[in-house]
Amino acid sequence: MSGFDKVVGSYEEAMAGLEDGMTVIAGGFGLCGIPENLIAEIKRKGTKELTIVSNNCGVDGFGLGVLLEDRQVKKMISSYVGENALFEKQLLAGELEVELTPQGTLAEKMRAGGAGIPAFYTATGYGTLVGEGKDVREFDGRKYILEESIKGDFAIVKGWKADRFGNVIYRHTAQNFNPMAATAGKITVVEVEEIVEPGELDPTQIHTPGIYVDRLIQGNFEKRIEQRTVRQA
After folding, report:
1. Phi, psi of 188 (to 5 degrees)
2. Which SMART domains has this protein been placed in (predicted)?
3. Residue ranges making up the domain that contains 188
């Protein structure tokens, strides 16, 4: 079984090999389903000049936002960046490159990268700044722009349960970008709340097959709420 066992014993081992200048694809949406401990390990390592591909850049002081504090991020490829004051400050000061990408296009860029598809056509962004300089084709009377897929040196992912072979289940909306991100890394690292023995998970419930996962670690999670709202009594 050891040849198929993906479990590592520490976060240092989980992120071994991450070097300056690499591209990291991160799952999560806002603060939902983010690999918060793997992000913390990147901060601890002090790796710099990183390109981060993620829906957003966390918030001030948590999630991917902590990587901005020591200027570890050179470029963000994101679809939403509105919850982070430090992000805004570095962007306006010219200290951070940002490539804004429509949310569905970003998800498909990850999925296509994992599927070995180098590029695809989408109508999203045609006629806007997003489409400037990109190849345009017409299909069935509608204009489409060519978008290149994304692959990362590392993909960091948050799951709910996994077996030791790396078969992963996500919980509810924490699926968000995690399944796509998991396929698109040369090295995919998954942290989960619970690791079980092979055979304990229903095969029909698996979201990410273990073939995509290189390293697996069990962690403890804070699970912050990004915007707490309650209805009036």
Report:
1. -105, 125
2. CoA_trans
3. 11-133+145-218
Q: Is 160 exposed, middle or buried (0-12, 13-18, 19+ CB in 10 A)?
A: middle
**What total of structural domains would you count in the chain?**
1
**pLDDT in the model for residue 3:** 61
Least confident of 2-16, 107-121, 177-191: 2-16
CB 118 within 8 A of CB 149: yes
Is the model's pTM score more than 0.85? yes
Q: Classify residue 42 by its DSSP letter.
A: H
Distance linking the first and last C-alpha atoms of the chain: 55
The H-or-E segment that residue 112 falls in is helix 103-115
CB atoms within 10 A of CB 19: 12
Least Cα distance to 209 among 189, 173, 172, 182 occurs for 182
Q: What tokens does 25 get?
A: 């694809």
Residues 33, 54: contact at Cβ < 8 Å?
no
Q: What CATH number does residue 43 fall under? A: 3.40.1080.10
| Residue 188 belongs to some domain of the structure | yes
Q: CB-based burial of residue 202 (10 Å sphere; 0-12 exposed, 13-18 middle, 19+ buried)?
A: exposed
pLDDT tens digits for 201-233? 999 999 999 999 999 999 999 878 777 788 887
208, two tokens = 């990410």
Kindly tell me if the per-residue pLDDT of 1 is higher than 70.
Answer: no
